[in-house]
Amino acid sequence: MKDWNEKLNEIVEHAREWDIGYIVGVPAWCQMCMEMVIEKYKVNNIHEIWPNFGIFVHGGVSFQPYKKSFEKLLGKPIVYVENYLSSEGFIGYKMKEHALGMQLITNNNIFFEFVPFDDKNFDAEGNIKPDAQALLVNEVEYGKDYAILLNTNAGSWRYLIGDTIRFLNVDKCEVLITGRTKHFLSLVGEHLSVENMNCAIEEANNHFNISIPEYTVTGFPYNNYFAHKWYIATDDTVGSDELIMFIDSKLKQINDDYATERTSALTDIFIEILPEEKFLKFMELRGKLGSQNKFPRVMKGNMLENWDKFLATGKI
């Protein structure tokens, strides 16, 4: 079914007929599906419908911001397995349940190259420079961020997939997805990555006992200096001032560059709390409602213009 709403409704209607043992998909859409099932059948958690549900295989985005709200839908613990796949090929997967990273698949028709994700190789918009340095797997270093170039026997040649990864174990090719080449903020050298943002959101979820299933951040000039604005999706009650102060504090702890710039050029941090439905409606209007689509963590350019117009008028 091409229509995502039709697909979800059909799943909900047949939910009681199925003995679901595992679910595979992007966290946001799987969570939405389970919420709809729980609401439809007036149960306390998804295990009252699917008692044998025991494994969730996820990928595409970091699971950190979703985990707390996801677990509220469960009646018992389950096993989480992260994988890393794309239209171009299967890139990696977790070898063990509690492994920190995923192991790249280096023997399955993909030849990898790794471009250090820094100012030498990428411009301020996240575009790769013509003379960018590309390293082979035996040349990478532990703890550094890289963008991936894929070469496949299907004809892809040095394709920039758009993800950034960090090697946690060079010998075993274990990596962590840290963000996207175009989803970062560095207006004045704060070098704020999606990984930093995800960590701050996860901490906020736990501290305030809330669920933040989606968020996005933008940066802009402000009073001769610069500012960030966070748009937070939550249907829970939380004070906006307390939430942004907490997020700002956490980012200062985990990112030294951000902490430094918050004392100089990055003078202000703003927040707007919105219902989750706002984020979903924006994706629907863009024709991006569905399991293969993810809400951008950083808003720039035309996307930001459409977002501002949507918040003001409900249209794009």
From TrEMBL:
InterPro entries: GH3, GH3_C, GH3_M. Signal peptide: none annotated. Residues 197-300 form the GH3 C-terminal domain. It comes from the Bacteria. Pfam families: GH3_C, GH3_M. Coiled coil: none annotated. Residues 105-169 form the GH3 middle domain. This is GH3 auxin-responsive promoter family protein. It comes from Niabella ginsengisoli.
